[in-house]
């Protein structure tokens, strides 16, 4: 006859509160209200303040997941954020910490990766897992033969322990915030609270960050004295307006100069917020994490930590079991015995490790049934509580440069105060032990010192009292097997096997077995891993050392890192007109601009035969003033500028110091010391920084002032044989070709708008004027041009027509007809590059490129079959079938009625008239003839009318 | 995430800046050999220790700064405006 009661099988509505205790002094649930939710499809209820798992535990549930590799049933272990057995799927959110996430009405909670069900998981019983997943299985299994990799992947996928993100998931709301507190306190237990209060009272602004939902740490599950102290400390925190409290938030890491990312949940309307804090001083006060004990059966549901029991009983008023065995090595374990008795749990046996008593193994199938003691006795129990010691979660200190040292007397790592940087302090259990008074007194001094170091208090350095560590037996493993890492299903045997196979360094063991690499980030597992490895290799824990504690402290969602989308989009002032007239939008960097208005070929013809206008506002524009602008232009452009007269414009190309073409554009001289430079649309920001770089670092003596005016002007290009006629109707500027010739600039009034800049240039190959008007009048001038040109048949044209027009004219586009390796003489710039200048950026490389004369050339191409338009990036073959170049631009020319192109082509094939083979993407070859890049009007007669 | 003390804007997070590179003298383009020029283009000393670098305060004053930084500890011992030589102490 079993001493344990048979689990009740009841209707769902009876499940709520079956294990709920009468009210407890420190409970955090609101019994007046209930919250309904579903667990694997079945309705349950809990109370506000319950976590998902405390509500399920109150209903008598004990199994919450299946383990990662072996699909063993897992239940509560820590009843905290770290609990490895309580990771669940909530709605469309995977990997939710079920022992931390608060219950909310209507939650649809499911166990992850259990098939066919949590109760009966096929993969746990068929033994498949243990055969496949040997120690270091990543490196041993599924390697050969390679043809089976897809099959291996399928097998592995069904074992992967993770939730799923359905494709139709609603996007979450994530954001970011920047904060500059004087002091960040990581941890809101008694020490953290006291440090925050002391720092605030000394004049510092404080951000107090707590992982759990309330401040208080272990005081919350203490007796009346602790609860009174908790109330007092909370009142002190609340009384300090300079303290900002963030609960349900974690300090993720400590980066250089106290850059501190904090992931905060529970902000109204927001799933997660990443607070990027820059703190004067960081106070590390995370307390201590209770360490599991390693023994056979230590992962059975019902084997729990003493802190888990104390949380369940005192915070959530849940009876964690019916009959308990307690393995205790410390006063906290003894206190758990008292909590169990007060909760009506029969304590069958207290095993006192301080007297040399021990536990060998836990037995049961889906839950604990029998505890096997060190003396051989077997005790029936459904609860085994272990209190065998503490891990100091030193991540933030390690990331600050500290190297905590192992203190065998206390069985834990303690910070090395000599290696802490000035702007990092530690308080509370991570430093040492003591009663609440001692912890608070120490933390109070730390808080005052933090304010002083943050520059908020002029007092002398604060004498921080010592906080000695208490003696504690070293208790890690019973030597009977069991799990070291619950998240990753790494057993003690896996560690010893790894050591026997030669992986005897802790960093190697970590990678080979994946121990400490799970969601708890080593806080539960690292020290046990080190201890088991130390035993296996005959070394001490200090000699074995620990693995590196890297950021982040806790796993961070991608949403929190990404934050809100802040993708800037730019429109020209003419955008409303474009939208009303059917413009097809083109995304060009940050700009959205018309690709065409429905008929790009017709737009080309309009420009060649009549007049068209294009919105070229995205062109980069820099206003340059000062007596040394000509020197600057001579330095940055490959061509000569000192000869440019007032009223003239010139096309220029910039190369980098390696001779690679960087940007191009037209610059006009508006006055004696006043120039307007244009750049490519995508190069505007880069060129501005480039200009400033040369001015500030190479020639600070030059007097040049640079103002970016890209969006100060709206720009329209009026192109076509009738462009002069159209523009003449709207401007008082004299357009007579005798007085306003090709490549000249004028300023004046257009459509009633003063302060316009008019360039007579010819990117399209036609007579054309580029008009830059103050941006606020851009739409007005555009509409006036369309109205005034109605009888001339004026048409708007988009980027596509402009690309065709310039291709017909043979004008290269930087970044399309050139790439990151194209030096000047490969870009068709032979006539432009002035190697006889004393200096310009990239001069030596271009000189050597010219001397070598082996570089590819930019050439024109015409397929013999003029109806074939080889796709851009098609390869050009040499006579041996190797790659001799590529098609960089390719279009059907409406003007010529045949296909034309530009290409980068090896020097040997670049002579005009050469026949080359183009290989199309579908594998067909076509023959093309090399031509001059200029396909239309090579003499430029159309420009000079 | 280190802080960089801009002489004009004060201490700012490094993400506000663009790292331009080690400060290296530009050879005379009239006399430089290909070896010298490519050394200037591509060869970086990349010391483990003190390094004089150029940083551009892109999201701030848009000034180029000359920064002496310890590449191992990220300690910064001198920052001045590359053009004017202004240090934080001398800036208004």
UniProtKB/TrEMBL annotation, chain A:
Pfam families: FAD_oxidored, Fer2_4, GCV_T, GCV_T_C, SO_alpha_A3. Residues 1-25 are annotated as: Disordered. This is 2Fe-2S iron-sulfur cluster-binding protein. Keywords: Oxidoreductase. Belongs to the GcvT family. The keyword Oxidoreductase applies. The keyword S-adenosyl-L-methionine does not apply. Residues 857-937 form the Aminomethyltransferase C-terminal domain. Residues 11-25 have a biased composition (Basic and acidic residues). Residues 575-837 form the GCVT N-terminal domain. InterPro entries: 2Fe-2S-bd_N, BFD-like_2Fe2S-bd_dom_sf, FAD/NAD-bd_sf, GcvT/YgfZ/DmdA, GcvT/YgfZ_C, GcvT_C, GCVT_N, SoxA_A3. Coiled coil: none annotated. It comes from Actinomycetospora straminea.
Automatic annotation (TrEMBL), chain B:
It comes from Actinomycetospora straminea. This is Sarcosine oxidase subunit delta. It holds the Pfam family SoxD.
């Amino acid at each position: 006859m079993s001493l344990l009661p048979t689990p009740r099988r009841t209707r769902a509505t009876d499940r709520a509160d079956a294990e709920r205790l009468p009210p407890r002094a420190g409970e955090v649930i609101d019994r007046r209200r209930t919250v309904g939710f579903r667990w694997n499809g079945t309705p349950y209820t809990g109370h506000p303040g319950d976590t998902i798992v405390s509500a399920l535990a109150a209903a008598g549930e004990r199994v919450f997941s299946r383990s990662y590799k072996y699909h063993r049933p897992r239940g509560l272990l820590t009843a905290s954020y770290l609990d490895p057995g309580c990771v669940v799927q909530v709605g469309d959110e995977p990997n939710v910490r079920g022992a931390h996430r608060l219950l909310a009405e209507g939650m649809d909670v499911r166990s992850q990766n259990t098939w066919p069900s949590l109760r009966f998981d096929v993969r746990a019983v068929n033994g498949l897992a243990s055969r496949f997943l040997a120690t270091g299985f990543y490196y041993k299994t599924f390697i050969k033969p390679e043809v089976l990799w897809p099959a291996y992947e399928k097998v592995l996928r069904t074992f992967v322990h993770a939730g799923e993100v359905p494709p139709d998931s609603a996007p979450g709301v994530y954001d970011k915030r920047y904060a500059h507190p004087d002091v960040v306190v990581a941890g809101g237990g008694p020490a953290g609270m006291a440090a925050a209060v002391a720092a605030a009272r000394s004049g510092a602004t404080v951000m107090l960050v707590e992982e759990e939902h309330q401040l208080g740490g272990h005081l919350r599950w203490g007796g009346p004295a602790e609860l009174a102290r908790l109330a007092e400390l909370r009142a002190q925190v609340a009384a300090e307006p300079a303290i900002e409290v963030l609960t349900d938030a974690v300090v993720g890491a400590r980066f250089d100069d106290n850059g501190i990312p904090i992931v905060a949940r529970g902000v109204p309307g927001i799933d997660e917020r990443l607070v990027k804090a820059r703190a004067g001083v960081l106070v590390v006060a995370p307390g201590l994490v209770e360490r599991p004990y390693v023994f056979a059966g230590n992962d059975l549901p019902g084997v729990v930590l003493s802190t888990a029991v104390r949380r369940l009983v005192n915070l959530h008023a849940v009876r964690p079991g019916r009959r308990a065995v307690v393995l205790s090595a410390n006063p906290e374990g003894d206190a758990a015995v008292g909590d169990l008795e007060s909760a009506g749990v029969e304590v069958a046996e207290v095993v006192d490790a301080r007297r040399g008593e021990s536990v060998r193994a836990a037995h049961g199938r889906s839950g604990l049934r029998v505890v096997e003691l060190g003396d051989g006795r077997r005790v029936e129990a459904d609860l085994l509580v272990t209190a065998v010691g503490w891990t100091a979660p030193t991540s933030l200190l390690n990331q600050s440069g500290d190297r905590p040292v192992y203190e065998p007397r206390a069985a834990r790592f303690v910070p090395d105060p000599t290696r802490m940087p000035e702007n990092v302090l530690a308080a509370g259990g991570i430093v040492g032990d003591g009663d609440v008074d001692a912890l608070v007194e120490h933390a109070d001094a730390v808080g005052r010192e933090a304010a002083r170091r943050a520059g908020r208090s002029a007092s002398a350095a604060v004498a921080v009292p010592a906080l000695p560590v208490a003696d504690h037996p070293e208790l890690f493993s019973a030597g009977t097997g069991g799990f070291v890492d619950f998240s990753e299903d790494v057993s003690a045997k896996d560690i010893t096997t790894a050591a026997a196979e030669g992986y005897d360094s802790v960093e190697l063991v970590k990678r080979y077995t994946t121990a400490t690499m799970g969601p708890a980030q080593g806080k539960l597992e690292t020290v046990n891993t080190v201890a088991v490895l130390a035993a296996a290799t005959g070394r001490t824990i200090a000699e074995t050392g620990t693995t590196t504690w890297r950021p982040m402290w806790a796993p961070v969602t991608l949403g929190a890192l990404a934050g809100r989308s802040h993708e800037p989009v730019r429109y020209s002032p003419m955008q409303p007109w474009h939208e009303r007239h059917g413009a097809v939008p083109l995304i060009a960097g940050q700009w959205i601009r018309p690709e065409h208005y429905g008929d790009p070929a017709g737009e080309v013809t309009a420009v060649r035969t009549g007049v068209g206008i294009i919105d070229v506002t995205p062109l980069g524009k820099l206003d340059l003033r000062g007596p040394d602008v000509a020197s600057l232009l001579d330095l940055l452009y490959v061509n000569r500028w000192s000869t440019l007269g007032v009223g003239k414009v010139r096309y220029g190309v910039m190369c980098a110091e390696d001779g690679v073409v960087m940007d191009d554009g037209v610059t006009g001289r508006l006055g004696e010391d006043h120039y307007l430079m244009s750049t490519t649309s995508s190069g505007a920001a880069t060129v501005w920084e480039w200009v400033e770089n040369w001015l500030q670092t190479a020639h600070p003596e030059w007097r040049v002032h640079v103002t970016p005016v890209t969006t100060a002007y709206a720009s329209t290009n009026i192109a076509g044989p009738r462009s002069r006629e159209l523009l003449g109707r709207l401007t008082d500027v004299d357009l007579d070709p005798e007085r306003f010739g090709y490549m000249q600039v004028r300023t004046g009034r257009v459509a009633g708008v003063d302060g316009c800049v008019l360039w007579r240039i010819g990117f399209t190959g036609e007579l054309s004027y580029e008009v830059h008007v103050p941006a606020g009048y851009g739409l007005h001038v555009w509409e006036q041009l369309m109205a005034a040109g109605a009888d001339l048949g004026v048409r708007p044209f988009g980027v596509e027509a402009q690309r065709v027009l310039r291709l017909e004219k043979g004008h290269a586009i930087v970044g399309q007809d050139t790439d990151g390796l194209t030096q000047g003489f490969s870009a068709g710039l032979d006539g432009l590059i002035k190697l006889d200048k004393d200096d310009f950026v990239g001069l030596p490389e271009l000189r050597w490129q010219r001397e070598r004369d082996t570089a590819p050339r930019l050439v024109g191409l015409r397929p013999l079959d003029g109806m074939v338009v080889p796709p851009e990036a098609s390869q050009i073959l040499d006579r041996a079938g190797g790659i001799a170049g590529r098609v960089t631009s390719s279009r059907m020319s409406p003007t010529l009625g045949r296909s034309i192109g530009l290409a980068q082509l090896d020097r040997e094939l670049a002579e005009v008239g050469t026949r080359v083979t183009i290989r199309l993407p579908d594998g067909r070859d076509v023959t093309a003839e090399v031509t001059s890049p200029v396909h239309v009007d090579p003499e430029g007669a159309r420009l000079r009318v | 995430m280190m802080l960089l003390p801009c002489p004009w804007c004060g201490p700012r997070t490094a993400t506000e800046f663009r790292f331009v590179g080690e400060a290296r003298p530009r050879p005379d383009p009239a006399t430089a050999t290909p070896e010298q020029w490519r050394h200037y283009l591509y060869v970086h000393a990349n010391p483990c220790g003190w390094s004089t670098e150029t940083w551009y305060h892109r999201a701030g004053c848009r000034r180029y700064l000359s920064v002496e930084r310890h590449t191992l500890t990220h300690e910064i011992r001198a920052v001045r405006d590359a053009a004017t030589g202004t240090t934080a102490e001398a800036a208004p």
